[in-house]
Amino acid sequence: MQRRPDFREGMARLSDRVWTYLQPDGGFGLSNAGVVGPRDASAAGANAMLVDTFFDLAHTRRLLDAVAHEVRAPVGRVVNTHYNGDHCWGNQLVRDAEIIGHRSVPDDMRKLPPEMLEALRHAPDSVPAALALREGMARFDFRGIELVPPTTLFDDRLEVDLDGLRAVLLHVGPAHTTGDVIVHLPDDGIVFTGDVLFRLCAPLGWEGTFERWIEALETIAGLGADTVVPGHGPVCGPEGALEMRDYLAWVRDRSRSAFESGKSLEEACLAIDLGPFGEWVESERVVSQVARAYRELEGHPFDAPVDFTRHVEIMAKLRERASTPA
After folding, report:
1. Burial 248-284 (b: 16+ CB within 10 A, else e)
2. Residues 199-215: pLDDT tens digits?
3. What global pTM score does this model have?
4. Whether domain 10-323 has CATH 3.60.15.10
């Protein structure tokens, strides 16, 4: 079994040619990336493959500087695991590379323009969403971001030859998002999951179904990879995917009970017992999963619009309660 790196900011080697760039503590916007280097960085035309960019230009520049220092090869190919900004809003800094993603990603990237989050960063405290998200957004600067979507698109599966190292890209959505893609390096026993897996931090997810997300996590666990790099949180093994599967099932079952007893969404969120998952980072984000359960129980489609502002308000109440001494 390969040694799993400590959860410290920066590049961590996973195998001879594979690294991850980690961003503790894995909370709002602090995602992980992957890097596959060439066999010989000094060879003509040698380049690296990047799995995801970051939430803003400053964080992505730090990532690219680290790749240049450690891998010593330019980025010639990028995979976006999904359309959320913390995994693709740095694409403009690698726009000359081949950018790969699921077919749904280019359209989905337009759902939330960076300008909207930048405006929210500076909104008055009277705007509940701004107040609730201010601490998380303070570390980012969304100015100057240009959306650069993938142009190499696929539907279900794509294999890429990385100078003799095979990468298998699998579409496993709609789970966290419609276009969720995982990147499996079977020869090295490594998989990059994007936000299909949040490790030891509460998952966000406004689309997809419990059934599909649980199935995706079981797919990850069944790949036989010793090293699993989540979209957020520390590197783990297949047990990480199974633990998050259990989290989703726990929240789904308790949400169903709350729904059947007539509780509103807010009442269900304020009453839910997270049991063994209560210490996960940003546990208040359980709201997105309770809302998913209510959406399914009410018979709405997996990609029905959500009341984001209302959800954030409930998250703020949960966070305030958790921070108030008993």
Report:
1. bebbbebbeebbeeebebbebbbebeeeebeebbbbb
2. 999 999 989 999 999 99
3. 0.96
4. yes
